[in-house]
Write a structure and sequence with these properties.
Radius of gyration: 22 Å
Family: Belongs to the metallo-dependent hydrolases superfamily. DHOase family. Class I DHOase subfamily.
Shape: globular
Pfam family, one: Amidohydro_1
Number of helices: 12
Structural class: alpha/beta
Protein name: allantoinase
CATH class of the largest domain: Alpha Beta
Function: Catalyzes the reversible cyclization of carbamoyl aspartate to dihydroorotate.
Largest sheet: 9 strands, mixed
EC number: 3.5.2.5
CATH topology of the largest domain: TIM Barrel
Number of domains: 2
Strand content: 15-25%
Helix content: 25-40%
Order of helices and strands: EEEEEEHEHEEHEHEHHHEHEHHEHHEEEE
Length: about 475
């Protein structure tokens, strides 16, 4: 690709502080991957030029052939603090994020106490995060049948949107949103323009499936898979498409696991409906046929499905039906995974992957010959757009925060507990051989992670933007 300086904005946006220039032969820009120099002042990108236009007085960071790409944006993270910091907390979650090249995460409103369903709860979360974060963060609010009077105040207080469940999540403070409650909230959501993130499973198909696994062996993954059939997702997505068509509110399907919904999602999007979709590393990496008995580290909801289904999800990404990849980092104390008895029925459902996500996805992309630029689109640019953060996060352009991941796509490693960095070093990826190593991570121009470890005191802040 020809490097055309006329296509790049180079207007200065800051004049104070040390001028830094970040140079690489492979920079992931909106225009493609090319040699470039990124000038940074006061934590923001002020110029994008060719490498031979570096100011003599600048503090130059040269990375050679290592890839300089936007800091990744993970919009589906369960930090669990306040209230359950023994599961995870801001300090450990953001540390793992920094090690994985993630410079912004958006925290889910459940598994913390109190759940983020009111402004008061949001302020308690903010107090808990203060001074602990190695990367920047933002918050989703929760939506239930019982907190709809709080939606506008939560929006004004800075949440990026709302998370809801169409099936019982087993959380006392963030209960299932009924179809009636969803219809009641839809007009307000349309007026505010914030996305509704939906765990898209309906209870009817799950209740019907329960009869088919009565008396089955719950140490077998097949039993768990049968208990959460594709129809639970498909029917929920059909409901959301219908209501979105009627009310035109923004819908974001979280952790899509079934490829059988892609055709209907594609048709809805072609009709102009404001629907976006994410999937997760575990759905793109693992396959049901390969999950052994009692491997409860791989329990999540919706479940990991077949190899053929996995390839359909990859096709959905390549065709643009699935917009982005988010981790759904959902850790818990190891005892809750029931590792000793291997019971999929009682084990906590959730997979932690903050520090590994980029490598997991790049390994699979490399095998499928998908270009590196798509990693940045799926894990930085598109997530920032969905969360309303794209005016500051997700791309390397003038005016953006100087958030960078320095990535070595040719390097490989074996997953060990020492590189996980989150609260409890357990993972279904242990022992896996992955490609792609995050060498350094920069937050607003400051190095926060490198091969020497974590650098300095936590510098992350909440990203606050207007509605």
């Amino acid at each position: 690709m020809t490097f055309n300086l006329l296509d790049l904005l180079t207007t200065k946006v800051g004049i104070s502080g040390m001028v830094q220039v970040f140079v690489s032969n492979r920079v992931v820009l909106p225009e493609g991957v090319m040699p470039a120099a990124i000038t940074v002042e006061s934590g923001r990108i002020t110029a994008v030029t060719s490498p031979d236009e570096v100011p003599e007085s600048a503090d130059v960071h040269s990375f050679g052939d290592l890839v300089l790409m936007p800091g990744l944006v993970d919009i589906h993270v369960h930090v669990n603090e306040p209230g359950r910091s023994e599961w995870e907390g801001f300090e450990t979650a953001t540390r793992a994020a920094a090690a994985g090249g993630i410079t912004t995460l958006v925290d889910m409103p459940l598994n913390c106490l109190p759940e983020t369903t009111t402004v008061t709860a949001l302020e308690i979360k903010r107090a808990a995060a203060r001074g602990k974060c190695h990367v920047d963060w933002a918050a989703w609010g929760g939506l239930t049948d019982d907190n709809q009077e709080h939606l506008l105040s939560l929006a004004r207080a800075g949440v990026r949107g709302y998370k809801c469940f169409l099936v019982d999540p087993g959380i006392e403070g963030l209960t299932r949103l009924s179809e009636t409650g969803l219809e009641r909230a839809a007009p307000a959501l349309a007026r505010m323009g914030l996305p509704l993130l939906v765990h898209a499973e309906l209870p009817g198909p799950l209740e019907a499936a329960a009869a088919t696994v009565a008396g089955a062996d719950w140490r077998q993954y097949e039993t768990y898979l049968r208990s959460r059939p594709d129809e639970a997702e498909i029917n929920a997505i059909r409901l959301l498409i219908r209501l979105c068509r009627e009310h035109r509110f923004r819908v974001h399907i979280v952790h899509l696991a079934t490829g059988l919904a892609l055709q209907e999602l594609d048709a809805a999007r072609r009709d102009g409906l404001p629907i976006t979709v994410e999937t997760c590393p575990h759905y793109l990496h693992f396959a049901a046929e390969d999950i052994p008995s009692s491997a409860t580290l791989l329990k999540c909801a919706p479940p990991i499905r077949s190899r053929g289904n996995r390839e359909e999800l990859w096709n959905g990404l390549r065709r643009g039906i699935i917009d982005l990849i988010a981790t759904d980092h959902s850790p818990c104390p190891p005892a809750m995974k029931r590792l000793q008895d291997g019971d999929f029925r009682t084990a906590w459902g959730g997979i932690a992957s903050l520090s590994l996500a980029a490598s997991i996805i790049w390994t699979a992309m490399k095998a499928r010959e998908i270009p590196l630029s798509e990693l940045s689109r799926w894990m930085a640019g598109s997530p920032a757009v969905v969360a309303g953060l794209s005016e500051r996060k997700g791309s390397l352009a003038v005016g953006m925060d100087a958030d960078f991941a320095v990535f070595d796509p040719e390097a490989s490693f074996r997953v060990t507990t020492e590189i996980l960095h989150y609260r409890h070093p357990v993972s279904p990826y242990l022992g896996e051989h992955l490609f792609g190593v995050v060498r350094q991570t920069f937050l607003r121009g400051d190095k926060v992670y490198g091969e020497e470890g974590f650098i300095g005191s936590p510098k992350g802040v909440e990203v606050k933007l207007g509605m």
